[in-house]
């Protein structure tokens, strides 16, 4: 029977690979794969292969002292201890192995033993662990040394943890079956943890010198105290199994690596036996978990991240929508309700309150000029990030509604009206956020020296008029891209995956950047021209807002044309286009 | 009310709909039937202005669906087999939104009546995620009927409905037809088509192979008048050889 499960796993992986290779016949996937492959090689694999090639290298950079190595081991063991402890405290559901709906439909009614289902699940989890190992090895290569040993070390840590999570979920279910509630179990585990902590504290109090300010004077003294605390007494025994698990990863040389292997393999084996011989029913909870997972995946693939969340609540509209009036307002109203799933009115009230409190606090201490400069700089950075990330994060526009393009197309609206309505919500949210930041910034400016106050206020005034049109332009570009190349961008049905998808996104990011630069050029020229003219006549503080206004007008004209173009693109958009896959 | 002249839809070299022409009068219920891949959904999508025809003209209420799309779309409603709703809008917010799109000034009265008729009145504040499949279908119908369309297209309207829902849906379709709406129903449920459609249009490989009342089509495809039902006619009309299908396997007798 296990052979059939192997066959399923093998064929699934093989067919997925074959379909990926086949679609490379299409240029968009081929170019994506080339760019994605180059990116992955130059940023990740070059170092990994370099590490693997250097097989004679030590596992860890030999320049790291044995004391530091011990600290790494202690830190790793402590982290594992905390993870394991949390695994016994936080979860509350019965044991549920998450299968896909197809697996549930085919495997659960089939004559397959529960043990074989667990084996299949463990086999599947190995694929996930494999990719996690690659990723973690790429990150941990900074420690230097042999990447192969790092990879094997990570595999042992992750596989043992995986088995422990499974085993603890089985134990949790058995306790629930025997009437031990989640809260009672938590109390018992926390009580045990408290007893361990008390034991360590008592031992430290009796054995170690009294803890004083000298122990926290600097980082080294803190490390020194932690080392004394964790390498003797009860903590030594408590952390010992966890230290064994991380030891192969930190082995300084080949001999140490192979020396550290037997104990960790024994721990792994014991975990495996624990999981395999646990007689726990997991099928019912698994079916439920699989359905939830399927619903969530479907929602995410439909570009609807909000629906994928648990406990989605009905939200009130941000304003009353009259039955008659401009049509784009209807889409703004609709999308703002969607945005409201994250940016609820309550969040805005909290945000405004925080800003007001910060403003008053800054005002009180704002007499310190350095502090005001620092705060202004932070606000400028936040504004920059809002321009950079805002249009990518706020996707309640065509990127979200494209899977329902057929519904939008039945509306008696012109293309430009739909286009305008679609981008209005993210623009509105971004503008409110940015104007709030500017308000705080303007308040702080009052505490800067005279001339600088005028200049900062001028910049803020310029930003007030520039930001809305800039936001609109920044949102028009990805929206146009999604209508032009719907199968390249994650919109719905199936989001692209794999190295070719990374490449496609890179190509798109570069393309969008170029379009943005091109769009900004006329506005920059208008700004520059007006600025230099007015600076000579009216001065710097007056030149900035007027030049910004000129640039904003140019950008607004561009945005107007952009909306018309986006509308035309939507009118021509064929809803039967190949979906992303 | 609906005029279709030479409608053709091409996907590359593949012809999904081929030179289709017909017209529908107010109060008429037309059944669009055909095997899978016959072009039924593509035809409906072209008629609704969702996808542009490659060739031909579609007029809804005298307005060209391509050139005068706004005026044409104001008069029609299209119900897909899978209700397409916005996950984050409640039942009432859906109606409010649609009212603005179609500029229905008195939508509150009509909306409440529709919700009562479709037994959704107590679900006004529910999100689509909280509704059953049938309720979602009803909400889509309420949204579509809010602006009192004169032309209505249904694509597999009975999918997912329970027997009560099926009965209500049939009554609702006939009620709108009696009110003067022109209706097209695309369905594989031949009994439904036979029961409520005044005219039947059979498509095969994107081409119209029959168009007329059940009696007219029966005459065309029967060896003798009145010797077959729509199911039998369908098999004869759409089979490659034009011969009758094998007789259906009957259920075993209960002793």
Describe the structure.
Chain A has 581 residues and is an all-alpha fold. Chain A folds into two domains: 37-298, no CATH class; 327-572, no CATH class. Chain A is built from 21 helices and no strands. Chain A has helices spanning 2-22, 27-53, 66-89, 101-107, 114-140, 147-177, 182-207, 219-230, 233-250, 254-276, 283-301, 305-308, 328-339, 345-365, 369-393, 398-401, 405-410, 415-445, 450-484, 499-537, 540-572. Chain A is globular. With 255 residues, chain B is of the alpha/beta class. Chain B has two domains: 2-75 and 151-238, P-loop containing nucleotide triphosphate hydrolases (Rossmann fold), CATH 3.40.50; 85-148, no CATH class. Chain B has a six-stranded mixed β-sheet with strand order 6-7-8-3-9-10, with helices on both faces. Chain B has a four-stranded antiparallel β-sheet with strand order 2-1-4-5. In chain B, α6 links the parallel β7 and β8. The longest helix of chain B has 16 residues, at 163-178. Chain B is globular. The mean pLDDT of chain B is 87. The interface between A and B is large, with 36 and 38 residues.
SSE layout:
The complex is a heterodimer of chains A (581) and B (255).
Chain A: H1 2-22, H2 27-53, H3 66-89, H4 101-107, H5 114-140, H6 147-177, H7 182-207, H8 219-230, H9 233-250, H10 254-276, H11 283-301, H12 305-308, H13 328-339, H14 345-365, H15 369-393, H16 398-401, H17 405-410, H18 415-445, H19 450-484, H20 499-537, H21 540-572
Chain B: E1 2-11, E2 14-24, E3 29-33, H1 40-47, E4 55-60, E5 63-64, H2 69-73, E6 76-79, H3 91-101, H4 107-117, H5 133-145, E7 151-155, H6 163-178, E8 182-186, H7 190-196, E9 199-204, E10 207-212, H8 214-221, H9 230-238
Parallel strand pairs in B: 3-8, 3-9, 6-7, 7-8
Antiparallel strand pairs in B: 1-2, 1-4, 4-5, 9-10
Helix pairs in contact in B: 3-5, 8-9
